[in-house]
Amino acid sequence: xxxxxxxxxxxEGPVEIVLDDGTVARSDRFMVAVCTCRRSRTYPWCDTxxxxxxxxxxxxxxxxxx
Length: 66
Fold this sequence. Notes:
Elements: E1 2-3, E2 9-12, E3 15-18, E4 24-27, E5 31-34, H1 59-62
Antiparallel strand pairs: 1-2, 2-5, 3-4
């Protein structure tokens, strides 16, 4: 298993994931990207939706210079 900073969890396949509702999602791929941001349209599999997420501005970036 490999953790990507602000990205998916990469796992060697095949993979079975039990979802919150008890259903099982299966993938027979040799490498599987599991979504951690929950924005994927193909959840639990990553569709790179995390790349479109904008970073929230920090409080110091929100200040207007006077």
